Amino acid sequence: MPRVGVFGGSFNPIHFGHLLVADEIAETLALDSVLFVPAGQPPHKIGTDLAPAPARLEMTRLAVEGHAGFEVTDLEIRRAGPSYTVDTLTALRERGALHLLLGSETFLDLLSWREPAAVARLARLVVIPRSETNFDPDGADARKVLAELELPDFIRVARDGPRSPARSPAPLLVAAASLPISASDLRRRAREGKSLAYRMPETVAAYVSEHRLYRSGR
User: Fold this and answer.
1) Cβ distance 164 to 178 under 8 Å?
2) How far, in Å, CA of 157 to CA of 148, rounded?
3) N- or C-end of the chain: fewer Cβ atoms within 10 A?
4) In angstroms, rounded to a whole number, what is the distance separating the alpha carbons of residues 155 and 158?
5) Angle at CA 88, nearest 5°, toward 205 and 180?
6) In this structure, are strands 124-128 and 70-72 parallel, antiparallel, or unpaired?
7) Domain extent listing, the chain
8) 131-155, pLDDT tens digit by residue?
9) Backbone angles phi, psi at 144, to 5 degrees
10) pLDDT digits over 33-72, tens only?
11) Which top CATH class is 3-180?
């Protein structure tokens, strides 16, 4: 059965930090592919300076172009209403053994999602600690999420270690290199007409410039 990474997000805009994490996780876990899922209406980001969904989809497609293991789906953008991960994973369940990529802060917020227990049943959770945070997998907050979702303790996966048992429901804790790039900073730079070079693929930077994204309040 194919091992498929599911990487959801607003990708507002997508940048090298996203791409590096996806590539490292795919390599570490021996995933057959990583599916990027731009959100149509992110339920937790209402009122932010969100670029139109078709623009974020196209930027994501431009960013992964040429990478044999990366794919993009417009599943959430085609679906009406807020983009709930449980619905997405349900629609993708025939693709293979799903691995949901989550930043550590997102994992700690998981109980606020729609049907979080179903999310954990539909996909193996892959938790990626961010270097600028103090995520403690043994701390009370992380333990609460594991307990509420009735999940075993994390399996720590080393970059050069063997891939994890496919049948285990335990979340995977995987360290990955990160870049000091933030989407909010990129939106600010675009709004101020500053350079986006070396922060995202050239094709994405050109798209942002050509379509004047994040200008005039966007």
Assistant:
1) no
2) 23
3) N
4) 10
5) 35
6) unpaired
7) 3-180
8) 767 899 999 999 999 999 999 999 9
9) -65, -45
10) 999 999 988 766 655 689 999 999 999 999 999 999 999 9
11) alpha beta
Task: Give every CB contact of residue 200 below 8 A, 6+ residues apart in sequence.
Answer: 13, 14, 15, 16, 63, 181, 186, 208
Residues 185 and 38: their CA atoms lie apart, in Å, by 19
How far apart CA 6 and CA 135 sit, in angstroms, is: 22
What pTM, to 2 d.p., does this model score? Answer: 0.93
User: Could you identify the residue written with the tokens 């720590």?
Assistant: 156
d(CA 190, CA 213): 7
- Count of other CB atoms within 10 angstroms of residue 143: 13
- Classify residue 129 by its DSSP letter: -
Distance CA 64, CA 66 (A): 6
Q: How far apart are CA 81 and CA 78, in angstroms?
A: 9
**Residues 4, 35: contact at Cβ < 8 Å?**
yes
Q: Omega into 129 within 30° of 0, i.e. cis? A: no
